[in-house]
Amino acid sequence: MASKKAGKAKGGAEAPEKLDVAGSAAAVDQHRARAAALPSKEVRGLGGDPALAAHNVGVAIAALAPHRKAIGELPAPFSKAALAALPSLAAAVVHAHAQVDRSSTGDTKKDLARASAVRALLLNAAVTLADAKALPPAKVATIKKGSGPRDLAQDCVDLAALFRANAAAIKGKTAIGKDTIDEAGALGERLLAALKPKGAKGKPSAEVRAAIDLRDRLWTLLVADYPAHARRAGLWIWVDDVDDHVPTLQARAGRRAKKRDAEPAPAPTEPGG
């Protein structure tokens, strides 16, 4: 085993209250098949802050990097490949959680604000095109009616459909591009899924339930892999000082992890012992 005191240069960089940690759709795809293969009874719900977990994974990987040779002596089931995959797995959890959060109040407000701007852009163009007989005036007039968040969302969907259905007729007559049309349609559909009709019960949509399931499966992989590989490697190098270098997933700088915060970690094993 490596020395108990492999230097006191602490890897625990201060974790701010608001963490700007990037998620990755590509990382989700990288780990999707393994997550999907988990038996449902083994899936555990999200039990912490994905951004903080990703931050601490980064701290751990940076702290362990100078000790690759010593870590290479670790016996199975430790895996250097699994250790190297932890940052992408954490990024996958962050991204998957963001997809679930699209139905939350904060993200819905952002979507409503953007949808309002996109609707105004498309509707102004639609009125001009209707005056030029490039779009059906009656359909544009219908879209102009109504008010409220759900009507705003439906307008975005209807405007996107109207522009797509009349693509040949409006070609070269408007500056509205495909990206704006696609954004309007996506915003509208997302908002219609998130905004409950008045008096409706708050049952999550199938899309939201699927997003939650994927996030929880990825989280389950992370809370299993991190102690099995990063924390195991940290215990091998620093033993009792492991928390100074390889924090638990939800640890914040300035305090050592309490027993109730720590992930269950298998004890390091001597080679051949």
Tell me about this structure.
The chain contains 11 helices and no strands. The chain has 273 residues and is an all-alpha fold. It has a domain at 103-202. The chain is elongated and about 75 Å long. The chain starts with 24 loop residues before the first helix and ends in a 28-residue tail after the last helix.
Tell me the overall shape: elongated
Mean pLDDT: 82
Q: Tally the beta strands.
A: 0
Q: What does the main sheet amount to?
A: none
Q: What is the overall number of helices?
A: 11
Task: Determine the structural class based on helices, strands and strand pairing.
Answer: mainly alpha
Q: What Rg do the Cα atoms give?
A: 25 Å
Q: What order do the helices and strands come in, and which of them pair?
A:
Blueprint (H helix, E strand, L loop, with lengths): L24 H12 L13 H15 L3 H4 L8 H21 L4 H27 L5 H8 L4 H17 L1 H4 L7 H17 L11 H33 L3 H4 L28
Concise overview:
The protein contains eleven helices and no strands. It is an all-alpha fold.
Descriptive terms for the model:
mainly alpha; disordered N terminus; 273 residues; 11 helices
